[in-house]
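Internal QA ticket QA-208
Title: Verify multi-chain structure generation after dependency bump
Assignee: T.L.

Test input:
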Amino acid sequence: MEDKTVDFLILGGGIAGTTAAETIRQVLPDASIAIATNEGERLYSRVLLPHFLRKKIEFEQVYLRTPQSYLDHKIELFLSYKAVKLNCQDKLVEFENGERITYQKLLIATGGRVKKLDIPNSDLEGIFYLRTAADAKAVANQMSQAKKAVVVGGGFIAMEFAHAFATGGLATTLLVREPYFWQNALDEQSGKLLEQILSKAGVEVINNEEVDHFEGEGRIRSVMTKSGKQIEAEIVGIGVGIESDLSFTDDTGIVLESGGIVTDEHLQTSVADAWAAGDVAYFKDVILNKNHKLGNWTNAMLQGNVAGENMAHSASSGQAGGGKVLETVSAYSITFFDSNVTFLGDTTKDEATQVFQRGSLEEGSVGQVFMRDLQVVGATLINRIVERSPLSALIKGKIKIKNPQVLSGSKFDLGTLVPSQ
Amino acid sequence: MSKYKIKIDRKLCIGAASCLAIAPNTFDLDGENIAVLKEGVGDDDTSVMLAAQSCPTRAIILEELNGEKVYPND
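Actual output:
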């Protein structure tokens, strides 16, 4: 088998990788560009998968590119190519199918895979995670035959599962390990508000309950909790986070941290001619002045764009690094039943020096504002979407708020803190 | 002068704001978290196309000035 050779090799065919490829093409009309993805799919919208589960769209509508658009952009797309070994010295990637591709510039945008619950019988049919288009198809298929559903986890994916199951008319139970939903990200008022929204939609929320094991003969029949409850289920949705498989970077000198690939603010890794973007990147955030991993669509897209530009300019200028700087306030926004849930910036509780609460459970609208000293670094908003814009401006502008106590006054207009242009 | 006419399908928009991230002079979010077009001079055509292509719900539609749809193109 002959090695293929390309100027630009992109590992990962999601929005980060695809945006990078298309950005490089804009800058360099004649370079050879290839995307190698371990999935069997061209670019689709991960964001739209829950819409598909809620039957708002047909499956075909999740795709964001046609096969023709790759041809039009002269981007080679290698499907079902899983990278297993990277050799940065020889600039060569080996794939599971035996193929090899050599490159001049490399982007690692391989995202992540779901973490799985390691408990007895968690491999029974009917137990699902949600990350890929294939996952979504399998979930939709099982949903059409199920009457009872259980959701396990705390976070956006658990919310999407509960939303889909309830909207689909399944009798749904959400098992929450903690006293309130998503305790490690939210305050009690926010967690309880989400539970209230779920209960109003007919979802049974059980707190302080953890799955002990699953029961069934080949296929899920019931969920057994640690307290001894037995809950019948024909479908189970689990959302307990993602992780990146970076074993293919072993012995390359590419520095990893917190399960991601460390990059500077130009998305460049510790190794020359190798960049990283998207969910896999532990990137330098110039607004928050720290490295972190962020898994959301807009961030992934922007990182792909910045990395792509820098890769292209590195090729044409011969310069080693530098270039465009990634500068963005992250936002993850979903419609949860009739409510809006939006996370902005850095919402890591234990890294904030102070957290202010806005609104209340009674009002049906709760927010948290995370501070680092006198600067807003992040926020969680439930049904407070009008505050997204001023909060984003405060975060991006690194505005120092002389009297931060005002942030806890729900009626206080945050816009007054934003300096006028 | 831009070679595109830009339309936003408000029903599809979920406020991901990837369009603002790429083309901040062209797009903004309104009080309902839905994308809207800004007044005045926008971004270059490359950025506008990237913005449309980045939308996770295909809510941005680009047309040639003669009305022919350019993106999404299926």
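Spot checks passed. DSSP finds eight helices and 28 strands in chain A.
Status: verified.
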